[in-house]
Amino acid sequence: MAAGGRGCGDGAGVGFGDGAASAGPAATRGSSTAVATAAAAFLKAGTFENVQPPGAGADTGAPDTGPMRLSRSASWFLLAFGVWSWFIWITFVKNLWNDASGLAFDDAGDPTGYFWVHLLLAVTSFLLGTAIGVMGLRGVRALKRERDEK
């Protein structure tokens, strides 16, 4: 129950009925009532009715079944990001493996938690960078194909 003896939906503005989405006396910044009120106001704003279903064209109402197109600059940016990821994260793992500071390996030469966390970070970033670079490469190749067809 909210402060002041009010529960959900009884005029405190946290219900999802037809009532106004006012904050009421119990809503203060950072309180759960204020968060719930923001959610109620968002839901009452008609946002769900304004969202087009996937594939629906905004102008004609006809489904948009064509492939997504990236701009030339976006494609090159994504490709450059992928290439950059290869250089950065491979270098990072080499430096991590050759770490002499004692952070990555203990005195017995066994990997520490620092090593495993940073290796996981590097591998994840490398894989995401590769996927982003592949998207950029596909965009560049598609633009080149379009240009050659004209």
UniProtKB/TrEMBL annotation:
Pfam families: SCO4848. Keywords: Membrane, Transmembrane, Transmembrane helix. The chain crosses the membrane at residues 76-93, 113-137. InterPro entries: SCO4848-like. It comes from the Bacteria. NCBIfam families: SCO4848_fam. This is Uncharacterized protein.
